[in-house]
Amino acid sequence: MTIKVHPFFDDLTSTFSYVVADTKTHKATIIDSVLNYDPDSGRCKTQSADYLIEIVKDLGYNVQWILDTHIHADHLTASSYIKSKLGGRIGIGSKIIDVLNYWVPVFNTFHDTPLDGSQFDMLLNDGDSLPLGESFITILHTPGHTPACASYVIDDCVFVGDTIFMPDVGTARTDFPGGDARTFYRSIQKLFHLPGTTRLFMCHDYPPNNGRPISYETTIGIEKQDNIMVHTGITEDEFVQLRTQKDIGKSVPKLLLPSIQVNMRAGQLGSQDSLGRQYIKIPINTI
Ligand SMILES: [Fe+2]
Fold it and tell me: How confident is the model over 129-180, as pLDDT tens digits?
């Protein structure tokens, strides 16, 4: 194994981003980057993405792929910004078409958010693989949290997005449009077929109030044994009941509307008006 994983934690959105590189060839991918957005002032900053860019430059990596595990609802992706600085091709799971067909009408952004996903360089199918130096990135569709969630397998590492959380947290919610607890359980079982020593890298961590530090890595074996919502022995029906109950009354993520809108454009802000200004639309009483 020759891959090196560089995690970065964006504490305002509790998001882990990763630079993953093949140490022999220095080919790299960036997964789940964050564009810093302040909804009160309407200003975007790039310090979190710039940290990833600095790692790439310092270590002489060559970024091939810029990936998101899904259309995040809690932060804006910096994919397009990173591409403008480092090159590389932007990819996301091909089921994004379902997400676009649901959400673009909600925002009425047909003019700058193509429904065919052509704003992304690559729509990745289940089982596709991308070369990463001497390794490969294998795409596993893991829907349930959203219809377009994908996990990325590189050697013995999996970048799971919001498919599964640390064992004492459980799993992500399934109450977003197109989310489904039953589908989610099956996606997690798909991951559980990987060897127990497989390393899992989280997209978020929300530790319980017990002093455990924020963590980004666990294994399939530990999740199967200890995950409070999907450990071995919990049936599909039990999970569906538990997950559905937990989702009742959950509040809307603070950055949901800006995030989805911008992330459906691979992180590009909306089309410019005649003065070059860009806007984020907030639909009223629509969702
Ligand atoms: Fe998410």
Answer: 999 999 999 999 999 999 999 999 999 999 999 999 999 999 999 999 999 9
CATH number of 3-259: 3.60.15.10
Q: How far apart are CA 189 and CA 249, in angstroms?
A: 27
Q: Is 120 exposed, middle or buried (0-12, 13-18, 19+ CB in 10 A)?
A: buried
Ligand 1 centre to CA of 178 (Å) is 13
Q: Identify whether the C-beta of residue 284 lies closer than 8 Å to the C-beta of residue 106.
A: no
- Rounded distance, CA 95 to CA 247, Å? 23
Distance 275 CA to ligand 1 centre (A): 34
- Residue 230's pLDDT is 97
Kindly report the average pLDDT of the chain as a whole number. Answer: 96
Q: What is the pLDDT of residue 1?
A: 59
Please give the distance, rounded to the nearest whole angstrom, from the Cα atom of residue 270 to the centre of ligand 1: 21
- What pTM did the predictor assign? 0.97
238-244: Cβ within 8 A, 24+ apart? 239/181, 239/184, 239/185, 240/181, 240/182, 240/185, 243/171, 243/173, 243/174, 243/181, 243/184, 243/185, 244/174, 244/181
